[in-house]
Amino acid sequence: MLSQLVLLLSNHRVAARRAATWLLVMVMISVSAVAQQPADSASVAEGEDVIPAVLAAEALLLDIIEVAEQRLLTVGERGHILVSDDRGESWRQILEVPTRTTLVTATARGDNVWVAGHDTTIIMSADNGETWSVQSAEPGGDPLMDIAVKSDGSGLAVGAYGLLMVSADASEEWSPAFMADLVVQADDSGAAQADADAEDDVDMQEDDGDFLDQDAIADFEDLDVEYHLNSLLRLDDQRLVIAAEAGRGYYSQDNGESWQVFRLPYDGSMFGLVRAGERDCLIAFGLRGNVLQSCAITSGWQTIANDSNASVFDGAYDSAGNLWLVGANGTLMRHADNSLDSISLDTGDDYNGLLVANDRLILIGESGVRTLPLQNGSITNLSDTAGE
Length: 388
What we know:
The radius of gyration is 20 Å and the shape is globular. Residues 1-40 and 186-218 have low confidence and may be disordered. The chain is built from 5 helices and 29 strands. The chain is mostly beta strands and 388 residues long. The two termini are 27 Å apart. β9 (144-149) and β10 (155-159) form a beta hairpin. The strands form 7 sheets. Strands 25, 26, 27, 28 and 29 form a 5-stranded antiparallel sheet that branches. A 4-stranded antiparallel sheet has the order 1-2-3-4, with no helix packed on it. The protein has helices at residues 2-5, 19-27, 179-182, 191-198, 214-218, and strands spanning 61-66, 72-76, 81-84, 92-93, 103-109, 112-117, 121-125, 133-136, 144-149, 155-159, 163-167, 175-178, 229-234, 240-244, 248-252, 260-263, 270-275, 282-286, 291-294, 302-303, 312-317, 323-327, 332-336, 339-342, 351-357, 360-365, 368-375, 378-379, 385-386.
C-alpha cells in the first residue's frame, strides 16, 4: 500500500526526509487503489460522460456529514459523492460531479455544501449536493484535508505542506496561503481572562500556565517548515484550532488571520479534533492510537490511556453523550468517563469517518458504508450492514 501512495507526492517542496511522515498521514485516506487509476484527474473534460460506479457505496469513502434534516452525504475516491435521504438506510450516487479526483472532506451551511480533496480541489453545491461546480482545482496540487465555512460565508480549508485555502465568500474564489507565513509568537493578551475561565478545569491540566503558553512554542526553531495540517475545528466566530503533524497544533483568535503554534505531548501526527463537553475542552486523536485531551487549547494536554496502537481518524458523539472513535484495522472505541473501551469488529477495514443518525453508528471507510445499531450508548448488533 505505502509504495503506491508515493504516487500522491506530486509536489516536493520540502525535504525528502518528510516523505515517510506524509505516507503515514495519507494512510488515513487509504488511497492505494486510487493512486494508480489514470482517470483520476482534477476535473472532468467538457462533454465527457461520468461513468457511475455500481458499487460506489462499497468503495473507498473518506468523510460523512449531515447536510439537511434527513439527508446525509459521503465522499470518497474518484470524485464519488453519495447521498441518503432516509438517514443512511439507502444511498444514491450523484452522477454529475465535475471531478474524478479523490474527495477527502465535506462541510455544509444551509443548502450549501463544500467538498475538498486532492489536487487542491474545492467544489460547491447550492442544492444540498444534487449539482456541483468547481471553485478550485490544480492538477498535481497538494491535497486538502479539512474545510470549514462560517455563517457569514467566509471559508477556510487546510491541507498538506502547510497549505491553507482562504475565501471571503465561499461561493466565489479561494486563494492560497501558507501557515509558515501566518505563524506569530504568542503574547499575553487575553491570558489573564483565559486563565480565570479555565480554573475549574485544573484537574485536566498539570498547571495553570498562560492560555497562549510561551513555553509551548519556545523550542520551535522550524516555524518556516510547511507541516501537514490534518484537521480544522472552529470554536466560535473568531477562534480556530488545527491538529497537525510532528506534535504541532495551531490556534487562531482572529478567524485565521494569524496563528500560534503549540506543542502536543505526542510528537507524531494528529488526525482529528472534537469538543469534549462545554467551553474549550478538546479531544485530539491520531497516529498509533494516541488520544489526548485539554481544557486550555495551547497547554495542559494529557494522554488518555489506550491499549491499541491503531491510528484513530474520526470521532462523533451519540445521544447518550458517548464519544465514538474509529480508525485503522477495524478500530472502534467508545470514550466515556475519561476512559476508552475497544469494540471488536469482524473486519480489519480502515474506517475513515463516522456519524450518528437514528440511534445508529454509520461508519465509512475502505469498503464503503457500514451501520451499527445503538441502544443506551451500546452497540446491540455487530453484524455488518453495508450501504445499498
